[in-house]
Amino acid sequence: MRYPEDPKFAAYFFRRHSFAELQEWTEALRFFRFCRAYGGHANDGDDLRAALRVDSEDDLVTLAAGLGIALRELPASAPQPQPGRSYSIEEFAAFRSRVECYPRFEQPCFIDLGGVPCFVYVHRGRLELSLSGADGDPYEVSERDFQHALKLEALIAPFAARVIDPPLDGDRCFTR
Q1: How many domains does the chain fold into?
Q2: Residue 126's CB: how many other CB atoms inside 10 A?
Q3: Angle of the 143-156 helix axis to the 19-28 helix axis, nearest 10
Q4: Those residues with Cβ within 8 angstroms of residue 32's Cβ, 6 or more apart along the chain or in another chain
Q5: Are 34 and 22 in contact (CB under 8 A)?
Q6: What is the pLDDT of residue 1?
């Protein structure tokens, strides 16, 4: 999405970052894209996001190693939350999130990647890297997040052929 046609959506999309700023970021970044939150009750935030294609479990292992992501194996017996049962915050925090499509692995989630705090999540067919909150607000993208994205681009460059652009379907990502 370059510029939304709907003026209300454009006002929402560019509320915190102008078209010119997002254009500048997009021209400087090869792989990361600014993605606007759904907002409202979704409890999501804006982020700079990159997505890379993953074709198999072995492919995930190779890609993660190449990016410097240490995949952790989870034993089959690792407890998981059961649908319909309530848990205290402490109980729920003890559960470890599995990669749904490759269940022997734990989701990387919040990690340090090349000295950059990053959120990494594996979905079917893709590995996503997400940056936001470097200035303290996890729902917002800052200039510092942009600088972090520039730094991570060097890690992604050897895997450029795997990049999925835009990283999300629909009209939430600012693209070239």
Answers
A1: 1
A2: 16
A3: 20
A4: 48, 49, 50, 129, 131, 149, 152, 153
A5: yes
A6: 61
Pick from 31, 53, 48: which is nearest to 124 by CA?
Answer: 53
Q: List beta partners, residue 106.
A: 98
Mean pLDDT for the stretch of residues 51-60: 98
The burial class, CB within 10 Å (0-12 / 13-18 / 19+), for 49 is buried
State yes or no: cis peptide before 4, omega within 30 of 0. no
Strand partners, 51: 128, 164
The pTM assigned to this predicted structure is: 0.90
Confidence of residue 171 (pLDDT cuts 50, 70, 90): confident
In a domain, 169, yes or no: no
79 inside domain: no
User: Do the beta carbons of residue 85 and residue 52 sit within 8 Å?
Assistant: no
CATH number at residue 140: 3.30.1360
CA 38 from chain centre, in angstroms, equals: 14
Residue 49 forms part of a structural domain = yes
Per residue in 112-166, pLDDT tens?
999 999 999 999 999 999 999 999 999 999 999 999 999 999 999 999 999 999 9
Q: Give the whole-angstrom CA distance, residue 79 versus residue 64.
A: 25
User: Is 152 domain-assigned?
Assistant: yes
DSSP state, residue 162: G
